[in-house]
Automatic annotation (TrEMBL):
It is found in: Membrane. The chain crosses the membrane at residues 14-31, 38-56, 68-85, 97-117, 129-148, 160-183, 195-217, 238-259, 349-367, 379-398, 552-575. One of its GO terms (biological process) is sodium ion transport. Residues 430-509 are annotated as: Disordered. It comes from the Eukaryota. The keyword DNA repair does not apply. Keywords: Antiport, Ion transport, Membrane, Sodium, Sodium transport, Transmembrane, Transmembrane helix, Transport. InterPro entries: Cation/H_exchanger_TM (IPR006153), Na+/solute_symporter_sf (IPR038770). This is Sodium/hydrogen exchanger family-domain-containing protein. Residues 42-281 form the Cation/H+ exchanger transmembrane domain. Its main location: membrane. GO terms for molecular function: antiporter activity. It comes from Aspergillus bertholletiae.
Length: 599
């Protein structure tokens, strides 16, 4: 007898299912809280819990449960990226966009180049090495945003550069997904449009949003703020802004996805647009508030000067306070996007959706097939190369000393400067000789003779006085020598002044910003697993003799997993050290260890 499909029948879940899901959520949050307190990397605990609970481990979750958690986890990833966009400082993003582009390009290029060592390490083909480099060139957005949010660095200049570079890595990674999908097709030829379209759509999407905000949304917001009194009262409530910002996020993500662009890139752009709207509304409300208050108070001040009755003056003073209160109520700042996110989204995203996302990454790690001798050491070697491929991005924040270059320039310029001085002396001497007359020459000769005779007389007098020394002067010199301080202190005081001052720029006082940037870019995460799994499903890595996953795929999974583990642990340890140094600087005084990158 067939079951009717007009409705889904409700069945009470068993107690084992309830305990399983409740324990899974509880353990995810407890592990996250404990590891965040220790090393700021609770996401690693959630990843290991996913391995334990899911298919790679004890298989306590059914395949349907894992599918639902994976989908909900991706929704949490979108919200996490949206939060990163809201927290982005637009002035800092504009000032550091070129630096973010340089960091992203360096990480992608070095990782792709080092991946071709797989041709010698596992006898991979160039196409397989390219696919591996595509998987290892991307940076985990979810991991990056989680690390920066946990360490309170997301609003700093360092956080802006890191998130911008990670976003560009993600766009390139999703473009490479399309490339690998095309290359994996057996019967189809390579089409350039498959590669060009996602790139053009991403660039066009970002440019179009900027033009729309500049020439479309900004005039509309100005008109709304000018006539906000005509709108109903519910348009100023936080519930109304919750709907507006939610529709903005959903619309941009859906439009970008249907246009073959990255949904995560669209979520980040939606967060940036939300931050821009908040800043525009805040600035417009303050200018309007000060303008109305100044005009009304100036008119009342003139009336107060004209009025002669003291009762009228008291009435005007009281009216001024009423005007200030009414003006602030009229131009009250609307609820911001960060406030809406904090009230409606933050807790469910942090406690349910984001733990599901990192647990779903653990579902994708075939840990039972990874512990074979050849696979382990090859995976570790490849992981070390991929760590180095992202660590080099931190060099963009290192200020190198130009001492060797300046010394070479000084050596090369020295002979030319001597020639210039010699020529200048010749020119000045020739000019003086041309100006001199015979009379002046005779006077100079007489003066020189007189100077010579006076010098000879002075030398004779000095010899006579030195032959008859004064005894009293000798005794005074002896007493002064015994009572004076030791002469070793004078050269110590004179040595700092005697050393030549250097005009070179000072070296960086710490390498913490460069280290944090490089290590934050190390984590691969969801995009790396996506590209590697897609290439494996297309048969690009070949098949093993036992029918399991290919050795190339397992080496790539080792590298992705170790990078995803190594990056957050090191970043958390460094940030913990930086926090302790910052507390010491507050107590004892001194500069921030992050310098300008911590602002």
């Amino acid at each position: 007898m067939s079951i009717s499909e007009t409705a889904f029948a409700y069945h009470e879940p068993t107690i084992s299912t309830i305990l399983n899901l409740a324990g899974f959520l509880l353990v995810l949050n407890l592990v996250n809280m404990c590891l965040d307190k220790l090393v700021y990397c609770g996401l690693l605990g959630q990843l290991f819990i996913g391995i334990l609970w899911g298919t790679p481990g004890a298989k306590w979750l059914t395949r349907d449960m894992e599918t639902v958690m994976q989908q909900l986890g991706y929704l949490g990833l979108i919200m996490l990226v949206y939060e990163g966009g809201i927290s982005t400082s637009l002035p800092s993003l504009k000032a550091n966009i070129l630096l973010s582009l340089a960091v992203a390009t360096t990480g992608i290029g070095v990782s792709m180049g080092l991946s071709f060592i797989l041709t010698e390490l596992v006898a991979a083909t160039p196409l397989q090495a390219f696919s591996a480099g595509a998987a290892l060139s991307a940076t985990s957005l979810g991991t990056t945003f989680t690390i920066l949010s946990t360490t309170n660095l997301i609003k700093t200049r360092l956080g802006t550069v890191t998130t911008g570079a990670a976003m560009l890595d993600d766009v390139v990674g999703l473009v490479l997904v399309q490339v690998i999908t095309n290359l994996g097709g057996s019967g189809e030829s390579f089409r350039a449009m498959t590669v060009i379209r996602p790139v053009c759509v991403s660039i066009g999407f970002g440019t179009g949003v900027w033009l729309l905000c500049r020439w479309g949304i900004q005039p509309v917001l100005q008109a709304i703020r000018a006539h906000e009194q005509r709108f109903p009262a519910f348009t100023g409530t936080i519930q109304f802004y919750f709907l507006v910002y939610t529709f903005l996020l959903v619309g941009m993500v859906a439009g970008a996805t249907y246009a073959d662009a990255s949904s995560l890139f669209a979520a980040y752009i939606a967060g940036v647009v939300t931050s821009w709207i908040d800043g525009f509304s805040k600035g417009n409300s303050t200018t309007a508030d000060t303008g109305t208050m100044s005009t009304e108070l100036s008119t009342q001040h003139t009336y107060q000067e004209e009025g002669s009755n003291p009762q009228e003056k008291d009435f005007i003073r009281n009216n001024q306070t009423i005007v200030q209160q009414t003006a602030s109520e009229k131009h009250k700042t609307p609820p911001t996007g960060s406030l809406v996110y904090e009230k409606y989204y933050h807790e469910p995203v942090t406690r349910i959706l984001v733990p599901f996302f990192f647990a779903s990454i653990g579902f994708a790690i075939p840990i039972t097939e990874m512990f074979h001798g050849k696979i382990v050491w090859r995976g570790v070697v490849y992981a070390l190369l991929m760590v180095a491929g992202k660590l080099v991005t931190g060099l963009w924040l290192v200020r190198f000393s130009s001492r060797p270059f300046s010394s070479v320039v000084r050596i090369l310029r020295k002979p030319f400067s001597n020639v210039v001085l010699f020529c200048a002396r010749l020119e000045t001497g020739s000019q003086k000789r041309q100006k001199e007359t015979p009379e002046t020459q005779l006077q100079q000769q007489q003066n020189e003779k007189e100077e010579k005779t006076s010098k000879i007389q002075n030398q004779l007098q000095e010899k006579q006085t030195s032959s008859q020394p004064d005894k009293q002067d000798q005794e005074q010199e002896h007493e002064a020598a015994t009572n004076s301080e030791p002469p070793t202190q004078q050269p110590r005081q004179a040595t700092p002044n005697s050393q030549p001052t250097s005009t070179l720029p000072p070296k960086p006082k710490s390498l913490y910003p460069a280290s944090i940037l490089g290590l934050a870019m190390v984590s691969r995460g969801e995009v790396g697993y996506l590209i590697a799994s897609l290439a494996e499903s297309k048969g690009m890595f070949g098949a093993s003799s036992r029918g399991d996953s290919s050795e190339t795929y397992m080496v790539i999974v080792w590298a992705i997993s170790l990078c995803t583990l190594f990056g957050p642990i090191c970043v958390g340890t460094l940030v913990k050290r930086v926090k302790s140094l910052q507390r010491m600087r507050v107590d004892r005084g001194g500069e921030d260890p992050l310098g300008v990158w911590g602002i």
